[in-house]
Amino acid sequence: MEVREEQFIASLVDKDPELKKYYEEHQELERKLAEFQHKHHLSPDEEVEKKRLQKLKLSGKIKSWKFSEGTARLVRFNRSLNEEDRSRYFC
């Protein structure tokens, strides 16, 4: 994840429990994958587990990205509205 995207997502984590769940899962998967990086040779079972974790991490990354993209669009939309329109849309 790019630093800017990660900072944006981190800023939203406290505001949305679903995003917080994805973010925490992502951090945990990164920790588990880092354990495999320290090994010079992986057994076939470890290779399979590593691939499984990488796929889970990618899936969570996509979910977080979609969430943050939607939030960014909403923020841009909100900024584009004048005060009267905001009160109409966000009562």
Explained architecture:
The chain has 91 residues and is an all-alpha fold. It has one domain. Helix content is 84%, strand content 0%. It has helices spanning 3-13, 17-37, 44-80, 83-89. The model has no long low-confidence stretch (mean pLDDT 77).
Summarize the structure.
84% of the residues lie in helices and 0% in strands.
Descriptive tags:
mainly alpha; elongated
Layout: helices, strands, pairs:
Layout: H1 3-13, H2 17-37, H3 44-80, H4 83-89
Helix pairs in contact: 1-2, 2-3
Number of helices: 4
Total strand segments: 0
Number of domains: 1
Order of SSEs: HHHH
Extract low-pLDDT stretches.
none
Q: Overall mean pLDDT score?
A: 77
Largest sheet: none
Approximate helicity band:
over 70%
Shape: elongated
Q: Which structural class fits the helix and strand makeup? A: mainly alpha
Radius of gyration: 18 Å
What's the end-to-end separation, in Å? 35 Å
Strand content: under 5%
